[in-house]
Design goal:
12 helices, two-stranded antiparallel sheet, mainly alpha, 334 residues, single chain, 2% strand
Length: 334
């Protein structure tokens, strides 16, 4: 059972090996090019042409965020807000990250609850007008996300789907917000399309194809960092396979990871190991009770009620994982 569901936790953690390691613990305010000071957004602050609302690094367990879901407990709010001279929020990657951080609680909290948590935080740190405008943009962003689920997902043409998504963004968010929120994402999508089209060409030698691929990938501003991350991911995966194969102890795992990636990363991996062990234990207990339920003489209605009771101890995202594992036959026969 140790391996079941591991991709949901361990493989997700491998990608944390470059940059600040953990999205929830990194503080973008310490990085160059990231908003780092508050200006003209607090009552009594000196008036300036632009203001910055650096939410990054503010503890999520603050009483001001109210009822922080378990998945975000102990993390810091990610993202931030910049305002222009007229007190309008500037739609950029920082603001999108802020919205996405709050929306990460979907499944544990409803949309209205999440919106209220954001509103409470803004109320403490922005003027009423600024908060109102941020919330209005948040509402448009949420409406856009809902609309994406209604796009035709049946098309096999990636270019068509991306074009439809871009049209939807422009229509619901406007050109400025679309560019600020999704410019990097769309650029990456165009590179993916270029690579896909390159793979279908038959007029190139292997050497020419490899050179063309490198030229396309090199267009990414994060290409060099991506190369490092990719290598670190491969190293981490190889190390985890080796540690699993020898049934390494927690102490041995920490030492091996510390030597390869440093103490901070080793601590993060140890935390992931603990989460994995807890998840495995929950799955084993669920499977035991589910199998006992299958042997009981119950009506269909009673069985359904009992099944829902078994799942009630899991969060919405965990229930979806369990259902996916059962559909894939990875939790054994009922």
């Amino acid at each position: 059972m140790r391996i079941i569901g591991k991709s949901f936790i361990v493989l997700g953690g491998i990608a944390l090996l470059a940059g600040g390691f953990w999205f929830g613990l990194r503080n973008p305010a310490t990085n160059s090019g990231t908003p780092a000071v508050m200006a003209s957004t607090m009552p009594g602050a000196d008036t300036q042409s632009e203001g910055t609302y650096p939410l990054s690094g503010i503890a999520a367990q603050s009483a001001h965020t109210g009822n922080v879901p378990a998945s975000l407990a102990g993390t810091a709010i990610d993202g931030g807000i910049r305002f222009d001279a007229n007190d309008f929020p500037i739609p950029d990657a920082e603001l999108k990250r802020l919205f996405d951080w709050f929306l990460a609680a979907l499944g544990e909290q409803g949309p209205e609850h999440i919106r209220q948590r954001l509103a409470d935080e803004l109320k403490l740190r922005c003027t009423p007008l600024q908060a109102q405008r941020v919330l209005a943009l948040f509402d448009r962003y949420v409406a856009y996300l809902r609309a994406t689920s209604e796009l035709d997902a049946g098309s096999d043409d990636l270019k068509e789907r991306l074009a439809a998504l871009k049209t939807l963004r422009a229509r619901m968010l406007g050109a400025d917000v679309s560019e600020g929120f999704f410019d990097d994402e769309e650029s990456q999508a165009q590179r993916v399309l270029a690579l896909k089209e390159l793979s279908t060409r038959t007029d190139l030698t292997p050497e020419q194809r490899a050179q063309a691929e490198q030229q396309i990938k090199a267009l990414s501003p994060d290409y060099a960092q991506a190369q490092v991350i990719d290598q670190q991911q491969q190293d981490a995966q190889a190390l985890n396979r080796m540690l699993d194969s020898v049934d390494a102890t927690a102490t041995e795992r920490f030492a091996a990871r510390r030597d390869l990636f440093g103490a901070e990363a080793a601590e993060r991996f140890a935390s992931l190991d603990q989460q994995q062990a807890q998840w495995d234990s929950q799955l084993r207990e669920y499977q035991r009770q589910r199998d006992n339920l299958a042997r009981r003489n119950l009506t269909d209605a009673q069985r359904q009620t009992e099944q829902q009771r078994l799942l009630s101890g899991f969060s919405e995202s965990q229930r979806r994982r369990i259902e996916s594992l059962e559909r894939a036959g990875l939790l054994g026969a009922r």
